[in-house]
Amino acid sequence: SEKIHVPPVGPADLPLSLLELGCSGRFELITHPVPGQPLPPQSTLPHGLPPTSLNLETEVEKQFLRDPAWLPIHDTDFVFQKFLKLAQRKVDVDSLLSCSPSALPSGLSVVRDPTTGMLLDFTEVLLENTGLSAKNSLSLQRQPGPPSESLRGSNTNYPFLPGGMEELSLDEIRKKSELEEEIDFEKDLLKVPPGFKVGMDFTSKEIKIAKPEVNLMSLLSEVEDSADLQREEEEKDEEQKKEKASNVLRTNSLEDLGIKVIQLDKIQSPEEKKKWAIPVDITSPCDDFYKRIPNPAFKWPFELDVFQKQAILRLEAHDSVFVAAHTSAGKTVVAEYAIALSQKHMTRTIYTSPIKALSNQKFRDFKTTFKDVGLLTGDVQLSPESACLIMTTEILRSMLYNGSEVIRDLEWVIFDEVHYINDAERGVVWEEVLIMLPDHVSIILLSATVPNALEFSEWIGRIKKKHIYVISTMKRPVPLEHHLYTGNSTKTQKEMFLLVDAAGNFLTKGYGFTVLCSRRCQEGDRSVWLALLHFLSQRQQTPVVAFTFSRARCDDNARSLESMDLTTSVEKAEIHSFFQKSLSRLRGGDRQLPQILLMRDLLKRGVAVHHSGILPILKEVIEMLFSRGLVKVLFATETFAMGVNMPARTVVFDSIRKHDGTGFRNLLPGEYIQMAGRAGRRGLDATGTVIILCKAGVHEMADLHAMMMGKPTILQSQFRLTYTMILNLLRVEALRVTDMMKRSFSESHRNAQEHEKRISQLRQTLSSLPPLDPEGQLSDLLPYYHTVAELRVTNESLQKAIVESVNGLKALSVGRVLVVNNKQHLNALGVILQVSSDAVNRTFTALIICEKGNEEGKGEPDAASPHLYNTALFIPEGPCSHTVQKLKLQDISAITVKTLKVIPDRIIDNYNKRQQPRFRHEPPGQAISTATQELLRLAEANPGGLATLDPVNDLQLKSVDVVEGSMRLRLLQDSLKSFTCIHSPTFAEQFARVKERMSVQEELDRLLFLVSDQSLTLLPEYHQRIKVLQSLQYIDSGGAVQLKGRVACQISSHELLLTELLFENVMSPLAPEESAALLSCLVFTQKTQVEPHLTSTLKESIERVLSVARRIGELQRECGIPQTAEEFVGQFKFGLTEVVYCWARGMPFAEIALLTDIQEGTVVRCIQRLDEVLKEVRQAARIVGDSVLGSKMERASLAIRRDIVFTASLYTH
């Protein structure tokens, strides 16, 4: 085609052009083109406009032919060299050395005209914290990591700084030390503040120079505080000062300042004692709720309860709350409001629950309410970018340790079912998460009613340094009535006996009736159920949840109801269509599993079974049908009550005893309440009915009362050290394991701040006491004091041993003569009248002789303890009087060999009578005066001291401690006589001074010990575990984490065994299916009777695993961990190896179920958890660089992820 001919520019062509301004989409008309340039640039962007249509050829060429990353340049063969010439590529050795560019140290900042806002200039500003990254800093200022790691984080990342930890980064420490060097508190001080005429004089000697113990930060804060308070005063004083300036003495101002600071301390101290947990009063109605929150983030179709309104007011103020209420009281409202708030604030919320089933359910509930909801559990990850994430606590823990980016945007973390912290196995995870959460995250804790909610919240408040508002309500929206049911004789079939009424009163009358009726009937299990269910369905009391504490009994009970049909034909059709639709996702073979067929028949008749042995998909079908009211009778185990929020009209207890892994016991009140609380649906039933079956006779009334009326279990710390936790914290220099231990709930009694304050007070007291410099006769005063102190301690421990022994108590019986020493008496004789029965703080009521006039103990004896070297008995100087007192153990300094005949009741009655004012002056009764005379006679006969009972020879206490103690006591008593200081005339006052000083010192030492790490209960175990990790080379001697340790960090349970298996290549000879089968020992926990048939390689591998486990077990034992090697090896059970092996090789589920006696549901659960283990091993293999093992794990994972085991949950669709 010919060229288009464009005429030259003529006068008609206007010199116009368009200029695009930046990327804003705005254009400007240019009318004066620059001469010499035919057309001006079309954009202010430096590179012109972006290309509109890309040329594919050049793209491909650029990417595949010219991109050095794509082709190996360093190949040597001939063809390749030729190609290089053709492509004109240079060999570039430097390209092999990659180095990430360092962060820009500065950025550009705009200078604007302050009036018009026009751009005037750009200036360069230095940036702070540019070097911070997830690999070296805990700060939220650090750069975000790569997007691929934003969700789960990476195990080389640092976590974000946990809230409430005042850890400093290395830079800050460095900065502080530089500052400290610059400030010298003695010389070159600036004296006159700018703008002031008069400054301070620092020569005054009264006020001490700041001691090095004083923390700079605390000094600063004190100065700031005082400055705030004084600012107003200063403004007032300013004019006066100007007048007086000439005659102000320079020292005055300093003293004023000193005085003011002291006053400040007085002002602050009441606040410092503030409680972190604040109970919220929910009795008063919350009237101004709608005024205070005119447009709430979320509205409900019903009026909220007071406790919900109070909680929402706290959430609006961005405070943390702990809500303890019964199951159906509506705690979810609080969670929903928090999610709505975070959506309004464009932040994120994490909702954690202890159980996967509960997570799935909540996901469905919240998804319908909020749309923008994601789910993260071990095997499922749905829309992780959502504003509200639902996850199990373990995943949140690993996100925190791995510094996930999600934490930055986090506003709330909601912990549901917090009472799960009592779980021995997993409770520690909750504590770790609570300790590791950063400061900007607020916490919402939802729990069943617990007695110590305040104490628990106080702990969280203290470690996070923020207030926790505690809202607990005992009110049930639907009150419960508890009944007993015995019926299978025709007479009692129609009767239930009310035991606890809706108002919560225990009726003993109902119990009596039950006992009468139950005498007549003793029949089979089955008829009881039939009779009861007939009775309940006639009275319209369905749906019923029947709690049974064994899976076998659940199944048997359900099967025994063959003759029973509780559904109408309409309901049958609905059940059938729902069942078919739900199972349509299963493969044909899986739909014919015996369990599914059996359950289908039961469900049609309105009966179902729910326990861990049921297939997960069936469980979900049953839950959904139950919540629609189509399942009339559900036989369930305790797990149903734990999470699944499915209320019924009636709850029946098959029995009140359960097996808890160690033995049979009665239900605890907490468990009973949790299960019974499933009765009564809000808005549907007036009261919920709870029925306890009495099949083998009626339960003891005391047991029933304890269970129904008792307090629920208190929250207790299950904190323990795990290797993963230790390694995760050792990875990060700034976090120490001891900090984690100090903050655990088990150490919550340590109140470090209080102790610190007390320590500084004691230090001040010590420095104000006069110094000790005993000389001359008094030169051995200090050793004397220490001897006396040791004597006292030895004596007390001996006394304790005596009282705790049988013979000792026989000796300390009525009529025994004692030597008494306390505030009032000094080596006075007394005689025992009564011994209290309380074994813990045993007291002895005794008659003691004393001076006339000192009955009440007016005369204070010397603070010195002369009685310790002086055994001379007290003999009254004037007339002898007496007193009757309750003595504690420490008041009795010796048990003599003498006894007296006394009449205790008469003595005590007479003495008590004479204590009343009107009988004050009566002479003492016959019994008293005889006893007093006897004691006086004894004292006068043996002024040097009475013979005492020797604990070893007389009382026959032969334990090592007692024998050593009494020998030591004799030695100490003898040595006291040789001290010279006791003969000094000023001995008493000098000794008092020593005593005062030493008691302060001792308390100080005790507190310093309590604040130090040495007093942690778990510290010895921590050192033992560190020893184990060092000898296995997970960490080096300096505590730095090695490669093995990095691998173990990835693994959540049984980390030592798995890491050792990895490094010993136990899995390299195995096929993918076999390695999956082998690893099943880590997730399978039950016993099985069936002996698995295995391939020879698998048998060998099992032997290797056991030997590795034995080695670790023995090593732990050597390092002092109390678990025996047998116990350690016993955790790993290989009962499912064959099942998993066959499953991975593609055998259908129906055949697998026949290989073992383990129930289908348990098998499925195990294989699902196995998949999580395989994922972890795959990650670990990647760290080690073992790509073969990684791909093998991936293949194993694919082999087991199929069919019924990995059918997606119904809740997530």
Automatic annotation (TrEMBL):
Residues 312-468 form the Helicase ATP-binding domain. PROSITE patterns: HELICASE_ATP_BIND_1, HELICASE_CTER. It is found in: Cytoplasm. GO terms for cellular component: cytoplasm. GO terms for molecular function: ATP binding; hydrolase activity; RNA binding; RNA helicase activity. Residues 225-237 have a biased composition (Acidic residues). Residues 565-730 form the Helicase C-terminal domain. One of its GO terms (biological process) is mRNA catabolic process. Keywords: ATP-binding, Cytoplasm, Helicase, Hydrolase, Nucleotide-binding, RNA-binding. The keyword Lipid biosynthesis does not apply. It catalyses: ATP + H2O = ADP + phosphate + H(+). Residues 137-157, 225-246 are annotated as: Disordered. This is SKI2 subunit of superkiller complex. It comes from Oryzias latipes (Japanese rice fish). The lineage of its organism: Eukaryota, Metazoa, Chordata, Craniata, Vertebrata. The gene is SKIC2.
